[in-house]
Protein 1
Amino acid sequence: MADTGAKLYETIALFNPDLDDEAIGERVKRMESVIGEHGGKMTSVNRWKKRRLAFPVKKHEEGLYVVLRFVADKALLPDLDYLLRYDEQCLRYLVLDVAKYPGMVRAKAKGEDK
């Protein structure tokens, strides 16, 4: 990983609420593996409990969230996108460049303290 292209990213993935802890753990390990293969470095992993969704997503009214923060090159993003897009248990996901959304990061950082 070239130091000049490394950025802080945050990925939020919403998974099928019927998955058990082991299945979620396997998915987190796969994401960490892809990040590591590209020379990225994990900064944090947060697994949230089952949450009620504001609206149904792929016919699910609840979901399991996983929030990953990592530093990596932009070259990683297509592989991470592929991994999440074709995982049938991943209902939705979002990858953010933290530098582009500083307001969201501050709000998130305050929420993590609870």
Note: The chain has one domain: 3-112.
Protein 2
Amino acid sequence: MQTSIRLVTITLVLATGLVLVPDGRAEELSRAAMLSASCEGCHGTYGRSPGAIPPIAGKSADYLRETMESFRSGDREGTVMGRHVRGYTEEEIRLIAEYFSQQSEQ
């Protein structure tokens, strides 16, 4: 019974949150989270890398965008980043940068 009440409460909170957010913004958040999921394979969940790969959570959106653009242009070298970022449009890079800039470092 407790689990049912919690599930209903969580569902209502999430549904209410989606109703209060304008449709376009809710879609953009989902797209940003989806695009960022591939980054989490190396940079850690929410960009909080526990290992040798640099963490990206909480970095400024401008810094992240400029870094990704440097990898894409070849001005900055990396093992896989250049290949990954070439597959994204400028808008997708902006969405990814904004997503990780909004994540807490801890």
Note: Residues 16-22 have pLDDT under 50 and may be disordered.
Protein 3
Amino acid sequence: MIRMMNELTIMGEPRRQRILNLVWDRELSAGEIANDLSDISFGAVSQHLGILVEGGLISVRREGRSRIYRANRGEMGPLEAYLTAFWDRKLDRLKEQAEKLEKKKKMEKKDE
């Protein structure tokens, strides 16, 4: 339980959440991650990656001159199930909102 609390503390920063989401199902280099987080410097991305690695939430391996990152899902225990459900709920809500918007557009077209 204490480990999960530490992991949740690390995850409290929105950019770290974005990074973890990016590497949840695939491996990405630090450069690819930094490209997605274009609102902050590469150095800031590197610091967030270091915190996530130190916290055991992601793993890193060297490939030539690059560092490749991936979510360390097997090490997360109950946090993995929580995050998977969290992102699934977010996707479900996004789908619902898109369907509502589409329905509203269709209704507006009928009224024209």
Note: The beta strands are 28-29, 58-63, 66-71.
Protein 4
Amino acid sequence: MKVKVGDNVKILAGKDKGKEGRVLKTMKKENKVIVEGINMIKKHQKPNRMNEVGSIIDMEAPIHVSNVKVVEETKKETKKAPKKETVKEVKEETTAKAKTTKTTKTTKATKTTKKTEKKAS
């Protein structure tokens, strides 16, 4: 499992999709994690010696690891726009190089034609 206790994670699927939280507990055998404030359920507590009056407790339920993604603290979202700009710059450089190579080829061709003209005369 790539998720560790204390990691910040983003929920990818389920009723809390898009929310972020901190991992409180991992259950490796079941491939599940408990995330703080995510997948909240209500547990009905029966009255007993410790708690004479019953109550309803809100608690976190486990969520499967495949529905969770680790979020880096430095980068929350990646942007794809800078990659496109670098591709354009590379294309411009290659076209500039192609133009220079074409001009050198034409100059060589003109030199050879001039030499053949001199030999012919």
Note: The two ends are 83 Å apart (CA to CA).
